[in-house]
Amino acid sequence: MPSCPVRPIGTACSSGAVRSLPAFPAAVALERSEGRVELAFKRRGPLTVRGHLHQSGCGKARLPRPTDPTHAEAVLLNLAGGLTGGDRLASQVTWQTGAAATVSGQAAEKIYRARGNSRAEIDTELRVAADALALWLPQATIFFDRARLVRRNRFAIARGGRLLAIEATIMGRQAMGETVEEGVFDERFEVRYDDRLILADRQLLRGSIAGRLARPAVAGGAAGLVTLLYVGEAAAERLDAIRAALGTLAAASAPDPHLVLVRWLAHEPRILHRDLATALLAVQTAVGLPARLPGVWCC
């Protein structure tokens, strides 16, 4: 039979033969993104240097030259450009004895609409040894309509170590007229100090997220959710200083002698980045740390 070039389904070619294209499958297995970064800092004399680095998939790390060699800096990247249902991103960062370093993200992480009931997963594990100073300062996460996210944060701090960590999420891009009408936002914190569990916390929003956030007893219409943690020996003794430094921006409490928990709701997400920077500098000063921000935050 004479050959026939590919034409629209059911179309005859000049030879009279009809050649149909195969139907597109109703359900297609989409490729998923997975990334993992394992990073360790160690003390070398007065300096903090990289001790270990493993990276795979879409998870990458970059170590810019620090302005202060006693305090290292790392920037984590997701080469996938965002996450959707079925994607997984894991980070494990260790501060060895005496190390001091800041870990941040290159840009705001984006959680896109998920297909079906699939969920994106982000796992963060931080280990802080004695006399180490750890700053975990990723940029805010942008959560899109019908996105589904499970974010697990597990922090272990040895006696004498200190951790300042922040996680911020923006529900929809208000400047683009977007709201999160539906989705799943599941964020968990497990914090241990000196091998003792001092915080087990879970924030779960599902179904009509915009409707729930609009309730006065939930968020009063705020679209930005922020959690800040300061963990260290007798951290609660700094509570009054932290409250004074933050003013009316946020609420702070001390659920454990070695933990200060700060939370606030952002009604103006477009200025959240500015407020985060202000809060971080204020808290660092209040707890006696040098006031510093990651270099990528300034761009």
Explain what the structure shows.
Helices cover 10% and strands 44% of the residues. The strands form 2 sheets. Strands 3, 4, 6, 7, 9, 10, 12, 15, 16 and 17 form a 10-stranded mixed sheet that branches. It has helices spanning 209-214, 239-246, 272-286, and strands at 34-44, 47-57, 59-62, 72-78, 88-95, 100-105, 109-111, 120-128, 133-137, 141-143, 148-157, 162-171, 183-193, 196-207, 224-231, 251-256, 259-266. It has one domain. It starts with 33 loop residues before the first strand and ends in a 13-residue tail after the last helix. The model is unreliable at 1-14 (pLDDT under 50). It is mostly beta strands. It has 3 helices and 17 strands. A hairpin with a 2-residue loop joins strand 16 (251-256) and strand 17 (259-266).
Quick tags:
299 residues; mainly beta; ten-stranded mixed sheet; seven-stranded mixed sheet; 17 strands
Give a brief rundown of this model.
The chain has helices at 209-214, 239-246, 272-286, and strands at 34-44, 47-57, 59-62, 72-78, 88-95, 100-105, 109-111, 120-128, 133-137, 141-143, 148-157, 162-171, 183-193, 196-207, 224-231, 251-256, 259-266.
Which spans of ≥5 residues are poorly predicted at pLDDT below 50?
1-14
Q: Quote the beta fraction.
A: 35-45%
Shape: globular
Helical residues, percent: under 10%
What is the strand tally?
17
- The helix count comes to 3
Assembly level: single chain
Radius of gyration: 23 Å
Major sheet summary line: 10 strands, mixed
Order of helices and strands: EEEEEEEEEEEEEEHEHEEH
Q: What structural class is derived from the secondary structure elements?
A: mainly beta
Mean pLDDT: 89
Termini Cα gap: 65 Å
How many distinct domains?
1
